[in-house]
Design brief:
This protein is an alpha+beta fold. The longest helix is centred in the C-terminal third of the chain and has 15 residues, at 97-111. The chain has helices spanning 3-10, 49-56, 70-76, 97-111; strands at 14-18, 35-37, 40-46, 65-69, 82-85, 93-96. Helix content is 34%, strand content 25%. The protein is built from four helices and six strands.
Length: 112
């Protein structure tokens, strides 16, 4: 299975994101946490709660996490973001918002 097929599969389901700020009942906006490693700013995405826990390597996460449909996540990206799925794990995948957008369009066209 190719990396592109894996990405389409991952973002066709719910994903887990870390929030930068708690959700507010007075707003319909969300602020997604990003991180920097080796000079690269990225948004971490996790395929399961187990993968999130494994990636944290015992560190306590102070921020709230949220589950979201992967296709919706892809639709709210600006286009220049770097996305890392399951960072620091053996199944880590690095991609960009532009690449995800194209992959999800391709999948939508195949399903139509």
């Amino acid at each position: 299975m190719s990396v592109f097929t894996n990405l389409q599969e991952i973002f066709s389901h719910q994903i887990i994101l870390i929030l930068a700020e708690q959700l507010s009942t007075n707003s319909n906006g969300i602020s997604i946490q990003n991180y920097e490693a080796n000079g690269i700013l990225f948004i971490p995405v996790f395929t399961s709660a187990e993968k999130l826990k494994e990636s944290l390597k015992g560190h306590k996460l102070e921020n709230e996490v949220i589950k979201m449909e992967g296709s919706y996540f892809c639709s709210i990206l600006l286009g220049n973001e770097i996305i890392i799925v399951n960072p620091d794990l053996s199944d880590e995948i690095r991609t960009s918002a532009n690449e995800l957008s194209e992959l999800m369009k391709d999948q939508k066209n195949k399903n139509s």
